[in-house]
Amino acid sequence: MKKLKNIGIVSLVCIMVMQLLAVSIFALPQEDVDIEKGKEKQKIENREEEKGREKKRNDGCKKISPLEAKDMLEKDDKIILLDVRTVEEYAEKHIPKSVNLPIDQLEAKATEILPDKEATIIVYCKLGKRSRKAVGMLCKMGYKNVYNLGGIEDWPYEMEK
């Protein structure tokens, strides 16, 4: 009986030693654990920074897809669709019911053409660069519901010439 008890204790000690060895072999050194924690923290901080940059880029105004814009325009005929390309570009082709106000005239004529700063305004240009700039300008001027559609080149629906 005493022999069996000794074998049990020896077995238990062997199991504990094997567990300790396994933990020490497979466990990451503390330095590696700290590096991994630092990387995860950096990822979270980068995501937060990107959210902040996106908010600054859009000045609180929103990006919108062609499908979202089309749906909004079909549901609400009071929405202003603003084309900020040149008069010549507008004459070539434009989205139906859009208003042309070239970006170089936006600051001077916005309050005349867009008197309601609470109105929903969807802005587009040719490729998206001017519309992004125009959205920022309008938001800084106090317009509250401004959406950046981007470029007419991405508009897959009806156009007028």
Automatic annotation (TrEMBL):
Q: Which residues form the Rhodanese domain?
A: 75-161
**Per UniProt, which keywords does this protein have?**
Membrane, Transferase, Transmembrane, Transmembrane helix
According to the record, the residues making up region (Disordered) are 38-61
Q: Does the keyword Cell division apply?
A: no
Domain of life of the source: Bacteria
* Annotated TM spans: 7-28
Keyword Ribosomal protein in annotation: no
Q: Name one GO molecular function term.
A: thiosulfate-cyanide sulfurtransferase activity
| PROSITE patterns in the cross-refs | RHODANESE_3
Protein name according to UniProt: Rhodanese-related sulfurtransferase
Q: Which organism is it from?
A: Clostridium grantii DSM 8605
